[in-house]
Write a structure and sequence with these properties.
- By secondary structure, this protein is α+β, with helices and mostly antiparallel strands.
- It has a domain at 78-169.
- The chain is built from four helices and eight strands, in the order E-E-H-E-E-H-H-E-E-E-H-E.
- The strands form three sheets. It has a three-stranded antiparallel sheet with strand order 2-1-3. The protein has a three-stranded antiparallel sheet with strand order 5-6-7, covered by helices on one side.
- Helix 2 (82-91) packs antiparallel against helix 3.
């Protein structure tokens, strides 16, 4: 199977409110969101708490979180709990856009590492690779969770992991 790299870029803190344009200083509470933009790329947008509470939301939003605007030289991202990772993973089920398939694949690998999913088998259908998982604590005979492996080479998977790591720290 041919695996071609797909460029994925999420980005770092913008320090500007996407709704009002106001500067978000380091230490300021804010809301951050990831969306798929008109060019089908993932991007991060930051919002002041005032704008967010007034209803500002980006079109194409995949997920959002409350955070504190980091100092410009700060390296660590936010920590997302297991339930939030699972929620995003579930929301992406059935979405056939390449960026979303890649994010869901990466989330499945995170959930596998955290032992929230258990790998059952790999199936090949219509020249595609599907990984089947069981949820931790699932009753015997429950339908498996199916995840399409994106058509990314290993360097692209690593680049995706690095990009996601810029916005969230997934501690084991």
């Amino acid at each position: 199977m041919n695996r071609e790299a797909t460029p994925l870029s999420i980005g770092k803190a913008t320090y500007l409110c996407a709704a009002s344009g106001e500067v978000l200083a380091a230490g300021t509470p804010c809301m951050s969101a990831i969306r798929e933009n008109a060019t089908r790329h993932l991007e991060r947008l930051d919002f002041s708490m005032t704008a967010w509470l007034d209803g500002a939301r980006p079109e194409g939003m995949i997920c959002f979180w409350k955070t504190i605007m980091p100092a410009a030289d700060h390296k660590r991202g936010i920590v997302i709990d297991d339930e939030a990772v699972e929620e995003i993973f579930e929301r992406l089920a059935g979405d056939d856009r390449p960026n979303r398939i890649a994010i869901r694949w990466l989330l499945a690998m995170i959930l596998l590492r955290k032992r929230r999913l258990k790998q059952l088998r790999v199936e090949h259908r219509e020249e595609k690779e599907f990984w089947l998982f069981a949820r931790r604590g699932a009753v015997e005979g429950a339908a498996p969770v199916e995840v399409l492996r994106p058509e990314l080479d290993e360097s692209a998977v690593q680049a995706l992991a690095d990009e996601l790591g810029e916005i969230a720290a997934f501690d084991a």
